[in-house]
Specification:
The chain starts with 7 loop residues before the first strand and ends with a strand. Strands 5-6-8-7 form a 4-stranded antiparallel beta sheet. The chain is α+β, with helices and mostly antiparallel strands and about 350 residues long. It is about 25% helix and about 25% strand.
């Protein structure tokens, strides 16, 4: 490539110079040498071009015969996409031969990517998504799909369990803060990070969109969908160094619903948890993470000895609950009854 006359690419009203890369090859004096320059795929050759990965992006063709995609990214992540003095955005534009428009601060406009090739639009969209995902993973969980377990029957059984545990242990063995608050008893089905109203609305729509599939799951059990809460277990193999003590959930219907919703969330951009195929249904009873330091942070390395609790209450029954609703719950926000505030509810 002539460095004085580089290849130019026009996207809308902006002109871009194609930077050299290490992908082109020439043969000189019987040796392969790497040289700069972008090589356009030769779709007229006998060799079939590599198929573009199938994506769900809604890409449109513009009047200028280029490709365009508009999508939402929380404004809190825009700074990472732009970079210091715009360096990250410029790098992405050069790498993908695209034009990336990030909306002004305070607006709800989408990010817009435009390029002459559909593959370049896809590449830019994925790179931006990767940056947003990296930012999201640094955030704490904000919302989760939940099945409330705080019926009067279950709360009363939990209070009796707590009283019996404390009565059978030396004073101060189990600080009160380790125990779950009865009004917050629940089963977590999947959790996520939602940064603004737009994302909350997206996940709300996901839950209600799956209503038909969830009802079909329930129909397969012919009304036998009660959720039984019975038995205790620890999250780790050593009960003498327990971090989480929980009650077991017995419900194939709820397991199937939880797994279904978890699969949906895993495919979304909002999921930040471990990529497990199945949900471990449980109702947390005691958790060391409830006991935070003076700065509100989790205390590291703290455990408690649950061996005697498991021996004495291993088959403890908390009761049964009808499977009638699934919530999109907001962490650290509570309703008048003390349960997690619901962004939306799916009534079954």
């Amino acid at each position: 490539m002539d460095v004085l006359s580089p290849e130019l690419v026009w996207i809308e009203n902006r002109c871009y110079r194609v930077n050299p890369t290490a992908e082109a090859q020439i043969i000189r004096e019987g040796k392969d040498e790497r040289v700069g320059g972008y090589i356009e795929p030769d779709f007229d050759s006998e060799e079939e071009p590599e198929a573009m990965e199938e994506v769900d992006y809604e890409i449109e063709r513009t009047a200028e015969n280029s490709f365009r995609i508009a999508f939402h990214v929380p404004s809190v992540f825009h700074g990472a996409i732009i970079g210091q003095k715009g360096a990250t955005r410029r790098r992405l534009e050069m790498e993908t031969r695209s034009l990336i428009k990030v909306p002004n601060k305070g607006t709800k406009d989408p990010i817009i990517v435009t390029a002459q090739r559909e593959a370049d639009v896809v590449a830019a969209r994925k790179k931006i998504g990767d940056i947003a995902l990296a930012c999201r993973k640094r955030q704490e969980m904000t919302h989760f799909f939940s099945f409330p377990c705080c019926t009067e029957e279950v709360k009363e059984a939990f209070r009796k369990f707590k009283e019996a545990v404390l009565a059978g242990a030396p004073a101060d063995t189990f600080p009160d803060v380790l125990f779950q608050i009865p009004e917050k008893l629940h089963v977590t089905l999947s959790y996520m990070v939602l940064m603004d109203n737009e994302e909350r609305e997206m996940v709300k729509n996901i839950l209600h969109r799956e209503e038909t599939a969830i009802r079909e799951i329930l129909a397969g059990f012919q009304g036998n969908t009660a959720v039984k809460i019975c038995g205790l277990d620890s999250m780790n193999d050593d009960p003498e160094a327990t971090r989480v003590l929980f009650a077991k959930i017995q419900s194939e219907a709820l397991q199937n619903i939880g797994d279904h919703l978890h699969r949906i969330v895993r495919k979304s951009e909002f999921f930040i948890g471990k990529d497990k195929a199945s949900v471990k249904l449980h109702m947390t009873l005691m958790n060391v993470s409830f006991d935070k330091d003076d700065d509100g942070k989790f205390k590291r390395g703290v455990t408690f000895n649950a061996k005697k609790i498991l021996q004495d209450f291993g088959d403890y029954t908390f009761g049964e609950i009808p499977l009638t609703e699934i919530h999109l719950s907001q962490r650290k926000s509570y309703d008048e009854q003390g349960y997690y505030k619901a962004t939306t509810k799916l009534i079954l």
